[in-house]
Amino acid sequence: MKKYTVIGFCVEQAGPLALLQDAGRFGVRRLGVTQGGPADLYGWAWANHLAGNPWGAPALEVTFGGLTLVAERELTIAVAGADLGATLDGAELPLWQRVTCKEGQRLRFTAPRNGLRAYLAVAGGFVAEPVLGSVACVVREGLGGFDGQGSKLAEGDRLSVGEASFAGASISEAPQEARFDYRAPARLSLLPGAQVGEFTGQSLFQAFNAAWRVDDRADRMGVRLTGPRLRCRIESLISEGIGLGAVQVPPDGQPIALLNDRQTIGGYPRLGALTPLAASRLAQCLPGQEVQLVAASREGCLAEHRRFLASVATPSVSAYHPP
Amino acid sequence: MSRTAAMALPRIESAGLDGWMVRLFERIDETNLGWIIALTRRCEAAFGEALVDLVPSYTTLLVVFDPLRLSPEEAYRCLQGLLGDLVPDEQSDAGDILELPTWYDPSVGPDLERVARYAGMSVEEVIACHADTAYRVFALGFAPGFAFMGLLDERLEVPRLDTPRQRVPVNSVAIAGRQTAAYPAVTPGGWNLLGRTSVRLFDRDREGFSLLAVGDRVRFVPVRREAFEAQGGDTTPMEAGR
Fold this sequence. Notes:
Structural class of chain B: alpha+beta
Distance between the termini of chain A: 22 Å
Protein name (chain A): Biotin-dependent carboxyltransferase family protein
Shape of chain A: globular
Pfam families (chain A): CT_A_B
Oligomer: heterodimer
Distance between the termini of chain B: 41 Å
Keywords (chain A): ATP-binding, Hydrolase, Nucleotide-binding
Largest sheet of chain A: 7 strands, antiparallel
Radius of gyration of chain B: 20 Å
InterPro entries (chain A): CT_A_B, Cyclophilin-like_dom_sf, PxpC
Mean pLDDT of chain B: 93
Strand content of chain B: 25-35%
Number of strands of chain A: 21
Number of strands of chain B: 13
Radius of gyration of chain A: 19 Å
Strand order of the largest sheet of chain A: 7-6-9-4-1-12-11
């Protein structure tokens, strides 16, 4: 952190999992380096937008809660995504809107009330030294985050914040219809992939009609779904690249939707891929929650994705930095 | 034969909203690499700013693009064009062979003796056989800088461990099936460990980060303990039985 010395927050209590995430680490997947980035792109993008940050600014992904931060100076913040019972000096913190946090105030995330992952953005963005072109924190790979070593937040950590450059950001509050009720049954749009025809007819019917349950084996690598056993005529493929949201089906017939920290290549047949927004939605589901897979068309999903990006004022998302 | 296998290659398959999977081959072969590397290079040039990521593997190339800059249809047509007059990258078949100095020893290669028994060879023959081949890097994955190399001599084809080890030491040299690799970091792992290399495989401060890239040719060079130590190799033995 050579260039930036501006102090933002101090970590008083760390909680189980709080990670710094920019949009992700791109251009290095051919080296076996995973994507990282926010598990819920939607909530992350809205938090940044409301804080007046451009696309890609590092924000904090708070999973479950249990995190207490103390502001070391006056900061403009926005929290979007899950409702983790956030408070500011004990008073309920309004979500999906811009809020001023005064020096010495305590920002506390308690426990999940609606959804699983909250995003805290601060005007100017959190600042850390990029590793392989990104500050996205991937614990398994020891890359990114506040210290560059892929560490989750720990008590006593101090978080630097960049100089806020927004001159009257467009909106200070997300419209009601942009805010999710994550407790509602999730309908996840899936674009069928090349192996979809290798599943038996009955399995295909079940895949798109059964109520799938989010298993407790769920993390930033992937989310296992339990339900009827799907059968595929092929058990494994020669390993190949796996995109975000790919829904692979190992021989036990229980699908796994792969998220941001997935391995870069793999060899299980796939039903297809969730859209980025569907992957985001799944990342907010608690174990036991019901989800449905919905076969979707590329055109409709692309239009929806573009509407989302336009709503958070994003001109472009690409960030290819080949080694 | 499945319907998929009967369809003509190369073909471009759906890989989500912002990706296409280019399937070039049906099976693993060294000659695949020149084609896959050539397509990787052409994609970098053709997609330019719209490119988000590329994941080459044994028979495929996953192309991830920015759907704001390029529609999936445009990306598809671009790939079709690139495939139309693709010629393999011949340089990938020539060039230097990267050498990985390796200390083969039961203290750091706890599966050496079991592999020898399985193959019906002496430990010395296993080492000679493993070190005799110039391998090709088919893919990177599993962990940053982890290179899947092949093809291993059929005589050394040994299955993975029934129960993977919780912690495989960094730089362990290993085999499984017709493949070989070296572990760039401490990870769990189910491959058979033969020894340890002294070369750093993944380094965030090195240009390109990973020592190995898809298409590289690699040879493991047996070294004695003294030379291994002199090169900075870690001689800490593995715990017995693990």
